Amino acid sequence: MAVRHKAIAVLIAAASACLAATGASRAEEITLYSTREAALVEPVVAAFTEASGVKVKIVFVEDGLVKRLTSEGAASPADVLLTIGLDKTTQPAVSGLTQAMSSTRIEQAVPANLRGGGQWIALAIRPRVVMARRDDALAAVDYEDLASPQWRGKLCIRSPLHQNNVALVAAYLVHHGEAATEAWLAGLKANLAHKPDRKDNDVIREIAQGACKIGIGNTVALAQLRDGREGADWRAWAMEVKAVPSTFKGGGTHVNLTGAAIAKQAPHPALARQFLEFLVTPAAQRIFAAAELEYPVLAAAERAPIVAEMGTFIADAISIDQIAARQQAAISLIKKVGFDE
């Protein structure tokens, strides 16, 4: 524990040096509306406060962020919005509840496809990939090939109507169009080992137990099971499973994300921007991504050891906004092929 605290102290010192150039303000406070639980945000918030002197009030908003911001209107105290999932990250911007941020520091740190028209940014990514047993010879796979008959009766997946899978189908739509996506979904359905259910954790368990040859899941689920937070049995199953490099043909790996934006009515927009600039520094990225065992959005940032051990996944170049715009079409196709039936 002492070693971990020392490491965090070093990271905070490094972040402080990065922040010094921004002319941090002292003895002020901003309000963060977060769909991530406060305990998972507090380490990086503490680092920011120590580096800048600016306090951050964390308000946990589990659901209904858009509704709350709309209701509060101009009286909203929210400065920064922190959201899990590309759906929740893009919704406030689409609803006109964010404001443009202009920052060379952010533009240099975050790839363009992971920035939403200057209205939001990704802070960490969650590759959604194929998983298989560690002793399986499968070394890489294209998403398109998951519909191949070679996987008949061998595929496990949680409900395709869960947001993580809706986003993957939406990305497929962007790449290939409606007809090809419908055919792909029909192929996936034909390859199922059983009706989709439960969570990514269960997909990992079933692969370890031999009920499925392959499955689809987020790297976050595999990493969190491996670190033991769900118990010894889950850790043992996760240690038998690997994340397989998965890409679109001619593209990269589909990723979901944790993102952030400056609220439209932010009382302290300059400090809000300063906070976001801090969050994309290498030191802050290490702290932030490690909380949920995500991949930092900043390529140069150090990854948590469990994350690094899973390998490197290059995010697909299509924009997250394009994927978000096709989510309803993806849901319609999922229902059309009766994937959940």
Automatic annotation (TrEMBL):
Organism: Bradyrhizobium japonicum
Descriptive protein name: Iron ABC transporter substrate-binding protein
Record's keyword terms, sorted: Signal
Lipid biosynthesis among keywords: no
Pfam family, one: SBP_bac_11
PROSITE patterns documented for this protein: PROKAR_LIPOPROTEIN
The family this protein is said to belong to: Belongs to the bacterial solute-binding protein 1 family.
Cleaved signal peptide residues: 1-20
UniProt key word Membrane: no
